[in-house]
Amino acid sequence: MIPTLAWTPEGVRFIDQTKLPLEESYVLATNYEQVADVIVTMVVRGAPAIGVSAAYGVALGTLQSTAKTASEFVPEFSRICERLASTRPTAVNLFWAIDRMKRVFAALLSAGATMKQVQDKLLAEAHAMYEEDIAACKAMGAFGGALLPEEGGVLTHCNAGALATCGYGTALGVIRSAVEQGKRIHVYADETRPFLQGARLTAWELMADGIPTTVICDNMAASLMHAGKIKAVVVGADRIAANGDFANKIGTYNVAILAKEHGIPFYCAAPWSTIDTATPNGDAIPIEERAAKEVTHHGGKQLTPHGVGICNPAFDVTPAKYVTAIITERGVLRAPYAESLKEMELIAG
């Protein structure tokens, strides 16, 4: 699998996704501040990968602390968590992972654990999240692969593959599983402006796997749907609200509306950690606004006039009414999502 991130004795090693597809290079984050920077600059991206990266950042900061006792470490632990939580506001996996590390630390503190025990346990928890993410992707891939057509075009937007997770992928995991099941899938990858995750990353991943892939400009999807070339759409998510509305890379909402108009099934694939039942609907999801330069420049070259206004939201919200099914590692959810999400949560305990 593509080594999105890996723990090493020196720190956390990331494949630099800003350099792909033409250069395969790696960045080593040797402290938690560098992990935070890697997340902000999108060297690592994708909600599940961001969450695990943050967990490793907490573990790294804990290992490097000079605190003698767990009690002495409390203020520093809070600063580490706050710094990592400030990196990207939309991906709920980030906060899920940090909250999980907080719960582990609180339990250790209550039990009177030594600082060495705290360090060992927090690193073990981050490792567990890494393994759980890969297992979750493979499970949702099996569930979702069964939903895709036996043959034909499948559209995806942004990159929800191995590069967005610790391995295998969410939306691309569904596609990979379908191909493994013998289905003859041809992927149409939206280029995904302005950061081009589809053109750069999704195409690179799928070509490495030998899965037929065609990159299209974002504004070509409707034409291909009308021509009958798209049989299904599958995308990832950065946060799924309690009613089934979800945030994903900007442009996903457009694709959902087009799929509905053309009678094409539209699937969202994400791990359970992406579901935020504390957020009632899509209107309550915070949307990250990124730097204007991502729009004004490409490859170091300015494309727009000096001084023009720029709007660059990183995500949009797709209302639940456009979603045919939500695919998770626990199973496939159908509308009404407020009910199916609650039922699945009760069944899973």
Overall pLDDT metric: 96
CATH superfamily of the largest domain: Translation initiation factor eif-2b, domain 2
- Overall number of domains: 2
Give the strand line-up of the largest sheet.
6-5-4-7-10-15-16
Helix content: 40-55%
Q: Quick one: CATH class of the largest domain? A: Alpha Beta
Rg over C-alpha atoms, rounded to the nearest angstrom: 20 Å
Query: What pattern of helices and strands is seen along the backbone?
Result: EEEHHHHHEHEHEHEEEHEEHEEEEEH
Strand content: 15-25%
Contiguous low-pLDDT stretches (5 residues minimum) are none
Label the overall shape: globular
Distance from first to last alpha carbon: 31 Å
* Fold-level CATH name of the largest domain: Rossmann fold
CATH-derived architecture of the largest domain: 3-Layer(aba) Sandwich
- Beta strands, count: 16
Class by helix and strand content? alpha/beta
